[in-house]
Amino acid sequence: MSGVTFEAGARRPGSRRTGNVLIWIAVVLGALAMIFPLYWMLATAIRPRSEVFQPVVSLIPQMLTLENFRNVAQRHPFLTWVMNSTFIAVIAVVITVSANLLCGYVFAKFRFPGRDILFFAILGALMIPIQVILVPEFLVTSWLGLLNSPWGVILPRAAEAFGVFMVRQFMVSIPDELIEAARLDGASEMRIFLRIVLPLSKPIIAVLVIFTFMWRWNDFAWPLVVLTDQELFTLPLGLNLLRGEANPDWGGVMALALISLLPMLLIFLIFQRYLVQGIASTGLK
């Protein structure tokens, strides 16, 4: 009786093959839907302006040109925006990753009164929308005299609650016996952190670098509030400036958007081999 039930419930090879084909079709269609905006951005950036504003625009550019890149570089402080974004993103990565690693290590490996309450308070900060703290954050930044300065963009976001949470979850898995053995050998706490904990934390450091660089590179709202001088604008603010013109140069906008993607791709390619391991080690799925 059980053998009859198994044969009735078994899937025939033909139906299984049909199911696999449907899954592959769905995957390919999903990939095309995600890739098409990137392709359209590239196609618009390298086609002439006259072709961009035709009534019917072809999917494949009829002519290839770099005039959109030259126009953006000649009419706007394009290189200055790139340098501003690079400075803010790199310095923010150094400060934020260092602060998150130290905070996460303390929460994971040290016991002190109020540790759990303080950690849950940090987790609670994750649930507060950025729009809610925008005004108080602006007032504090103004009081510190950091308005219209790159440091006004970097310092208020120096510590990320999400980063502290990820580091703490990762460092819990580091054996306490390893740290205790180093203490018995007379190593200082900073030496233990630098020589033992950090080398074991490469995956989570890679995740923090990717996320922090992405957040700071793509950040629009906070730099828009802090920065008023166009010479201090970042690439997202420059893109918004081009888009907001009376007769926007869409080819130039797409060229600038395309260039703004390149650093993110470079950072991802450098650190991507640690990305999955780092996220899996924190328990995040």
Helix/strand order: HHHHHHHHHHHHHHH
Largest sheet: none
Low-confidence spans: none
Strand content: under 5%
Task: Give the overall form.
Answer: globular
Work out the oligomeric state of the chains in this entry: single chain
Q: Average pLDDT value?
A: 83
Tell me the number of strands: 0
The number of helices is 15
Radius of gyration: 25 Å
Explain this structure to me?
The radius of gyration is 25 Å and the shape is globular. By secondary structure, it is mainly α. The two termini are 42 Å apart. It has helices at residues 2-9, 13-45, 49-52, 67-75, 78-109, 115-125, 134-143, 150-154, 161-171, 176-184, 189-200, 202-218, 221-226, 235-243, 250-281. It has 15 helices and no strands. The mean pLDDT is 83. It is 73% helix and 0% strand.
Summarize the structure.
The protein is mostly helical. Helices cover 73% and strands 0% of the residues.
